[in-house]
Write the structure tokens for this entry.
Amino acid sequence: MKKIGFLSFGHWSDSAHSQTRTASDALLQAIDLAVAAEELGADGAYFRVHHFARQLASPFPLLSAIGAKTRRIEIGTGVIDMRYENPMYMAEDAGAADLISGGRLQLGISRGSPEQVIDGWRYFGYQPGEGDTEADMARKHAEVLLTVLQGEGFAQPNPRPMFPNPPGLLRVEPHSPGLRERIWWGASSNATAVWAARQGMHLMSSTLKNDEGGAPFHVQQAEQIRTFRKAWAEAGWEREPRVSVSRSIFALTSDLDRAYFGDDRGSADHVGYIDADTRAIFGRTYTAEPDVLAEQLAEDEAIAEADTLLLTVPNQLGVDYNTHVIDNVLTHVAPALGWR
């Protein structure tokens, strides 16, 4: 059994071929898709966060709206770039969204990826400390967030407050118990997966990772997952870790499917550079008839290792089509693999 959800980047464009023309379209369609996915029996609705781009960038209003309109489905991010975040304010927003959803928030965070502008986090008022890199800054922001989410008081109360205070040091509010245990780290390397395990964060592994050894993408990703789980056990955490992987999977069951994705049959891994110094390997797109897809996916070692599979959806093709994409996997592919 696997949890199966979707991951949307929330693109919008005024192109004639896009059914998501504006930011309003992207947000409202994201809510509609989450509701439709829950009705289908999917397990999660996740959203990517990018700044300075025509994509979803402010996740907590969206997650709160989805939480209010759904009852069962997990809602989350994959991922929030911690270089841009004030961890105190983020703890308040995340706590509110989690309470609205009844404790269904699965918050994916990370050190971020190359952005649309140079050092965009500087425009948000952040810069690394002396001797630190931007990755160090992101991890420090994450560590503060994790500490604050534990819910322990740390702030000295005013002796003459506007409203009466509870006794002792104060914490940020609202606090949502259990949210600290539902934080995920988007790791692109084995070393950062180990760091995430030591922090007690679940592992979110995407459709790319640092190329560490030249093996096929799914083999490298499976090794990353095993490395993470070993580090988790060594850290002594009593709760079970979770691991998600993201995949582009399109079952060809209609003429429209074949028109959109038929040419992607036979897709393969490819290698590129996400910055001047980082060679990355990008996973393939899985596109085939359902029976062939089941055979191909059964050989994906990383999917076998993970407990959660996130389907990357082409959101600009509209809610109806993306509902069809998710339904195809749940109905025609997952049962053949024992996931349902």
Summary: The first strand starts at residue 3 and ends at 8. The chain has a mean pLDDT of 96.
